[in-house]
Structures are given as C-alpha cells and as structure tokens.
Amino acid sequence: MLTAKIITFGISKGGCSKSTSSGITSYLLSKEEKVLAIDMDGQGNLTSFLTGEYDICNAFEQRTILEAILNEDSRSYIIKIKENLDLIPSNDFLATLPRKMFEKGLNLDALQKALQPVMEDYDWIIIDTPPALSEQTVMPLSTYSEAGSYAVIMFDGSIFAYYAIPKFLEIIDGARERYNPTLKTAGILFSLIDARAKENEVMQEAIEEDYPNLKFETIVRRKASTRRIAISGFERNSELKNALEFYNPFVEELKKRVQQKQPQR
Ligand SMILES: Nc1ncnc2c1ncn2[C@@H]1O[C@H](COP(=O)(O)OP(=O)(O)OP(=O)(O)O)[C@@H](O)[C@H]1O
Ligand SMILES: [Mg+2]
C-alpha cells in the first residue's frame, strides 16, 4: 500500500532557503508523484510561494495546519494547488499553537495524529518549518511513516548556520529517541551560495569533515531567477528552466538517498 515518505526541511538559522527549497521540491516531485506540502511556519512563506496568495490571514482564516492539528484530523484543511500537488497552509495564527496544544493537552505526536488519515493518499509529504527549534519543528521530525521520515538540513554557508547544524542534529536525535525511531537525516543542502565567495570551499570542507556523507553533492547557487519564482510562480514562467537548474539534480539526489537501505545517520 502507498504510504508517504516525509521530508522535513529545517535549520534554526533564518533565511537559509527552507521555504523556497521545500516549495520547489514539492513542485518537482509532483510532476510524477502525489505530494502534500505542509507549512509549519506562521510566516506562511511556503503557503504564499505555492498559492501566490499573500493575504494569508484572511485567505486561509481557520483553514490552516493550526486547525488540522487541534482537530487531530487534516482532511478538511487540504487545498489543491495543481494536479498531484496539495497544500495545508498556515498563517500568523500558528503562533497560538503551543498555548492551544497545552490547553487541549496535546503532545508532540499531534501532527502525526492529524496526518494519519491522509498518510496513504500521498507518495511524499514535504514540510517547511520555521527558523526555531520549537514545537513547529519538533512535531514534523516526530512524525513517523512506514515509508520513512527524513530531515533535510538547510545550510547557507554562513558561520551562523554552521553552528546551528549540531543543534538541529540534536533535535533530530531527540525526536528519533522519543517518537520516530526510523527518522534519518537525508543530508545537508548548501543553498544561497555565491559562486565567487572565497569562504565557501572552506565551509564545504568543514561540513564534509564534520559530517561525512551528509552533504548533498548538489550545491544550490544564489540565482535571481530562483528568487523570482515567489513572484512569477511556476506556470507561464519563461525563466523557470534556469531557475530550477540546481533543484532538478537536488531532487534526483534526494530520491536516491531516501531509497537507500542503510541509514544515513
Ligand atoms: N537559490 C536562491 N537564489 C536566490 N535567492 C534565493 C534562493 N533561495 C532562496 N532565496 C531567497 O532568499 C530569501 C530566503 O529564502 P527563504 O525564505 O526560502 O528562506 P527560509 O529559510 O525559509 O527563511 P525563514 O527562516 O525566514 O523561514 C528569500 O528572499 C528567497 O526568495
Ligand atoms: Mg521560511
């Protein structure tokens, strides 16, 4: 039976291309397989990226991942983006999640419960998280799937992000121990990398030495056309091929990595 593989994009450093990368990955995977994208960040950037809607407070009022989690059933909160691609949106009210979870006595397996009824409807569940090691990041990592649950750690080559990586790996270890024994790190994805910056090679060597085999071979370079997808969208976008130059090989690599039998870490 079909069960979704879960891929959570994260890092506690802001602006490392989590939303952009999870959005593009969802789009590319949906060309051949069924994808559910989930926005776990109240900024709603993935929501805007995939829907083109920026007035998220009104547009998705009470129709978000917040309500899906609190009602322990995501089915009524899924919106169709296009053939094979669905989304559970978020908006600013996601900030109330911890308080409301506390009031309802919900635990870190609340997202798992919300997704259970739809787990078999998709090949992939792609989750964007906020730049924080909060419930909104821990819950996706705690969500188990028979087909596998994976984290992609986003890295922008900065020293801030470099020091955020071990903290994220600790959160992964914690989620694995408590809720999700088969959780794996799919890899560390270099993104927003300037072709000319001198420190990049040093960073690449450092990551390869610190975390052998975790670095994705594909390096996503900074490109104006990639940034502009948030404005132009995927349909009738004349520069899309150029914008996706680094994401096509990344998604192929991701697929290969999650099909491997032995754990990455
Ligand atoms: N490959 C790229 N080339 C150029 N610009 C990019 C690329 N990837 C992301 N960006 C831009 O960089 C900025 C940060 O990206 P994004 O919002 O995806 O990061 P994030 O990690 O989700 O941020 P946050 O931590 O706030 O959620 C955005 O303006 C985005 O459009
Ligand atoms: Mg984001």
Automatic annotation (TrEMBL):
Residues 4-184 form the AAA domain. It comes from the Bacteria. InterPro entries: AAA_dom, DNA_Partitioning_ATPase, P-loop_NTPase. Transmembrane segments: none annotated. Gene3D superfamilies: P-loop containing nucleotide triphosphate hydrolases. This is AAA domain-containing protein. It comes from Peribacillus loiseleuriae.
